[in-house]
Each structure stands twice: as C-alpha cells, then as structure tokens.
Amino acid sequence: IVFLVFFIIFSSLSAQESGSDTEFIGAKKIEEQKNLQKLLDSSNYLYENGEYTKSLKLNMEILNIAHKLDKPYFIHQGYRYLAYDYLYLNDTILAMDSFKKSEKYAKLSRNDTATAVTYMDLANVFSTYEEYDKAYRYFEKSINLFKEIEDSVGMAKAHYNTVLTALDKKDFNKAYLHILKARRLNKFGNHSSYSINLDIFLGEYYLH
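Structure (tokenized):
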C-alpha cells in the first residue's frame, strides 16, 4: 500500500512538472514568433519608406534568427522580404534566388496561403523578365491553390496580376478572361483602385 501511494504521488508530481515544462516551451515559442513578427514589421516599414539597404540588413538578421530557431514560415518571410529588397537594388539574380528559397520554405512550413503568395511573387518576377509562359504557369498555380483553400481575396489578386501580364504581352483575350474572373470575385475591399483599373483594362480590351 505504501509503495502504491508513493507511486501515485510521484507520478502526479512528474506529470505536473512535465505540464509546466510544456507550458514554458509553448510560451517561449509564442514569444519567439512575436519577436520575429516585430522584426518583419520593422523591415516592412523600412521597405515602404525606401530604406532598402537597411531593410535588407534587417532581413538578413531575421533569416539568421529564423534558421537558428528552425522556423520555416519565418525563413520563408525573410527570403520573401529580402527578394523585394534585391529587386529595388537592381540585383535580379539574388532576387530570384531569394524568391525560390521563399517558395521552398513556404512549402516546408505547410502554409498554403504563404505558398500561393510565393507562386504569385514568382509569376510577377517572371512577367517583369518578359518570361510570360513561366509567369502564366505560376499565376495558374497561385490561382488553383487559392481556390483550393477558398481564399477569394487571394484569387482576385492573382487574376488581377494575370491581367497586367496579359496586357503587357498584348494577349488581350487572356486579359479579358481574367478581368471577368477578377470582377466576378470583386474582393478588393478598401482598394477601390483595383476595381477602377479593371474597368480601365476592360476599355483597353475593347479598344485594342
């Protein structure tokens, strides 16, 4: 009986300690994620204010921390932000390399929204390089994944960007198709300029 009582008490204490450790680890992970998100927000602020070199330096720091903590989603975000810094600093080779790494870690994070956004990033870059077939393939992948996860806002933006690429390529029939799809979704929220531009694009289609 004494042994049984001792075993129950000991097991109870062990469970409490284990639970406490789990709570501590969980709280630590949440704090790490909050700190990384704050750094990403700071990077975004620098980027939006034209401080691309400072933003790039901060993104390098974010990547270093995220790699040490083994946080695929934040590694994805770090590379994504870094890629846009490189684009504005006219280093297209490192920008594309960073976008591809962003795609890799978005998939590793098992975050479908992040992956769909990365597909759209790559489509936009290929469009800038006038590699239109690759751009169309990535736009399609982005649209399909947004559709799969029922993200109508993401779908609308992907259709909108496809329109821009199609017009740049003078592919007016494709532009018309995606104008209709984007208008049908009508998920641009407070960004009324998107809806206005779609009307303008539709005018371009009829005038071409």
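The radius of gyration is 23 Å. The mean pLDDT is 86.
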